[in-house]
Amino acid sequence: xVLIISGGILSGHYFAEKSLIRIHILEELEQALQxxxxxxxxxxxxxxxxxxxxxxxxxxxxxxxxxxxxxILENEGGTLYSIWKEGLSNSGWxxxxxxxxxxxxxxxxxxTGNLDRQSQLHTLDIFKKRLAGMILAARSEYKxxxxxxxxxxxxxxxxxxxxxx
Amino acid sequence: xDMEKDITGQVLQILPVAIRKRVTEVFRDxxxxxxxxLRTGRPLIIVYGRCEYFLGINSGLTHNIKKAYYVSASxxxxxxxxxxxxxxxxxxxxxxxxxxxxxxxxxxGVAGKILWENGRIKNMGNISFMNIRVAHxxxxxxxxxxxxxxxxxxxxxxxxxxxxxxxxxxxxRDMIRILSNGDSNTRGLTVGVVDERSELGACYRGCPQNxxxxxxxxxxxxxxxxxxxxxxxxxxxxxxAVDEIGSNKDVSAVDYVMNCGIRVIATVHGLxxxxxxxxxxxxxxxxxxxFKRYIxxxxxxxxxxxxxxxxxxxxxxxxxxxxQGNTDNGVKSA
Lengths: 165, 334
Fold this sequence. Notes:
The complex is a heterodimer of chains A (165) and B (334).
Chain A: H1 2-43, H2 47-57, H3 62-74, H4 80-89, H5 99-110, H6 117-164
Helix pairs in contact in A: 1-2, 1-6, 2-3, 3-4, 4-5
Chain B: H1 2-12, H2 17-26, E1 33-39, E2 45-48, E3 51-55, E4 61-62, H3 73-83, H4 92-97, E5 99-101, E6 107-117, E7 120-133, E8 138-139, H5 146-149, E9 150-151, E10 154-155, E11 158-162, H6 168-181, E12 191-195, E13 216-220, H7 224-234, E14 239-242, H8 248-259, E15 263-269, H9 273-277, H10 282-287, E16 293-297, E17 304-310, E18 315-317, E19 321-322, E20 325-327, E21 332-333
Parallel strand pairs in B: 11-15, 11-16, 12-13, 12-14, 14-15
Antiparallel strand pairs in B: 1-2, 1-7, 2-3, 3-4, 5-6, 6-7, 8-20, 9-10, 16-17, 17-18, 17-19, 20-21
Helix pairs in contact in B: 7-8
């Protein structure tokens, strides 16, 4: 019985953690956008160099940036957007994100690299603001959501054990 | 052999995948190719061994336009993506100038829709024409004239005079390399190079792709006059090399550099000494004997050094001497 209740609590904890990881990933992406902005604004670095730099700085998205960097330097066809989408579909961390987050990420890929400098910086600025809003909303939701997940998990465990008894 | 492989790899890498496959079938190495021209909806042209060919639709090269491979708009976009590393924003300045230098010093000329704003080119869009010029450095082409410009441990202020496309930049590049490296008899000199159009060093990400010697400092993409002043202040060069001087500012900067005790090697467009003497701005420097040596390349003959003059205009070298050297792949060429 104790095991079933603990199992329920743990699954509740897992769902709460998933929300927390989502926040961490979004925060990392916010830093990545800031890094991209700086590299484009002050170093006029090309996008492969930027992705290479990001792969060294990231933890969750490290492999994604590395994939982007390598694929771009291969020059083996495809647009940046198609490579970006491929990279996202191969990334495990994307499963922690909501559907809206994934659409937002695809939008970033669609609007990267093929713009002039001024538009690129402006676009990144807009993305940064939107991401900041998403993080703020996710943080404010997190506490209530975590509590609910823990409560539902514990309740499910108790309910299951009562049923079994 | 390695150099040939490098050239081939560097050029192939920027070609669209479909074209790359066809070109690979035709050429084992691209070191003898001078130009590859891509135009949207037009046949792909390859200049090879100074002759022009169409890339064949099936395979090989052809002179028959009906059997030529036509370049599509998407292929040109693909090439632009590769050349710019998918980063149009990072190459705005280069696009404004009309060319991008890639690894290996190969220069990609582009043309398309110009966006004009406030009396200057703002950007270039719809790139529909592309000319890939394969870089071939001619090592040793200036060796014969070096004794005429050396002066003890230093050199004379020297002006290379030539009409366009006669090899003055190639000659200057090799002079820089030889002066910078030095040899068993002469010490190497610190050479500051102001490379406004990236023709001398062909810098890629700030690193010269052409051999400019071990004691050369290159200011890439910098206006000549400002660049010369910067080098004097920052890099304490013994020689400053600059290509195609002509404007008032350039000539004033050359004068300033000479007054700082730094030697100058420069090039200028011109047909003969009289034309240079009569140039409104540069003429004053010539009349003041600021330059001690003038190297004249002959019009219409690529790479032929016609004469070397001293400051009084007396001929000190007059031999039929073509600029002949080792191309960087070791093949003798003229």
